[in-house]
Amino acid sequence: MFRQSFRHLRQIIPSSPSPPLFHRSVTYMPRPGDDTPRVVTLIPGDGIGPIVTDAVCQVMEAMHAPVSFETYEVHGNMDSVPAEVIKSIRRNKVCLKGGLVTPLGGGVSSLNVQLRKELDLYASLVHCLNLPGLPTRHDNVDIVVIRENTEGEYSGLEHEVSPGVVESLKVITKFCSDRIAKYAFEYAYLNNRRKVTAVHKANIMKLADGLFLESCRDIASMYPSIDYNEIIVDNCCMQLVSKPEQFDVMVTPNLYGNLVANTAAGLVGGTGVMPGGNVGEDYAIFEQGTSAGNVGNEKIIKQRKANPVALLLSSAMMLRHLQFPSFADRLETAVKHVVSEGKFKTKDLGGDSTTQQVVDAVIANLNLL
């Protein structure tokens, strides 16, 4: 039953350990019909979203990728995701999305969470690793954070019990805990990963996080070749910033995964270079892997200096998911060439390049492959 559920894992992120930057040891044998064009739903989003999604569109056109986009305007201040957008994603199965801002207060719920729940995108997957040519405090970081995406503190079940007293419910279920644990171990198995670490706070939330750990332990017993350990979330954060190389695959409930993925991303270059995806049984949305902290940065937007690397790498993941591996490899290699050369870097990476300059450099490298 579970084996079919994880049929897309080989495509969504390249196997690890990663091959050298300019060499790939796997020879792909395209199947007849693999070049059949696919339509992908595109949501440019807010702030820097339209800038970086336009960067992806330019690169896809330059490399003649067999992908066309069906674009919809969606903004974080809307009451809900328009029905035609949901229909488009259900029809196309795959979506590429820029950041959507969630306003603080005002009763407007997160459209990001709405999309994940509506499409049952139960697994968030972020690959945090060192990129050649990008100096960071730590080397040998190669962490995959797999986060449960539909419940926990993000259930949105809040109410005011009495004036000045608010109750927020954290929901953890056996069903969702089982499937995210299974996803993490199946990912590790298919990608030759050696260890899965469950992140929790079961010393305090004994029932909720205790149930999550129970599922992880049950699933771990089915994969004896993969090491399994557990870590309390506060200790996890300390260990991440002091010795991140000890982690391999991390599986987490919803809120912890958000915090852990952003922390791990900060260790290897920041949110501007980390790809990610949200996947379920039938649909997938690819976007910047971790919170787009500069999504609404007016200066970056005005100067058009948003970093497109994260979304370009997410697009490579999308191409692999769509079973266009040769296009995915070309795009990934071209982006890594640009990063390793260091000539065109946006401000978050210590440079002053515009988004367009980075895009032009990526296209120039594509033409050399």
Automatic annotation (TrEMBL):
Annotated keywords: Magnesium, Manganese, Metal-binding, Mitochondrion, NAD, Oxidoreductase, Transit peptide, Tricarboxylic acid cycle
Keyword Transit peptide attributed: yes
Residue intervals of the Isopropylmalate dehydrogenase-like domain: 39-362
One GO term describing the cellular component: mitochondrion
MF (Gene Ontology): isocitrate dehydrogenase (NAD+) activity; metal ion binding
Residues forming coiled coils: none
Protein origin, superkingdom: Eukaryota
Subcellular location field: Mitochondrion
GO biological process: isocitrate metabolic process; tricarboxylic acid cycle
Pfam families: Iso_dh (PF00180)
Keyword NAD (UniProt): yes
Function: Performs an essential role in the oxidative function of the citric acid cycle.
Family: Belongs to the isocitrate and isopropylmalate dehydrogenases family.
Protein name per UniProt: Isocitrate dehydrogenase
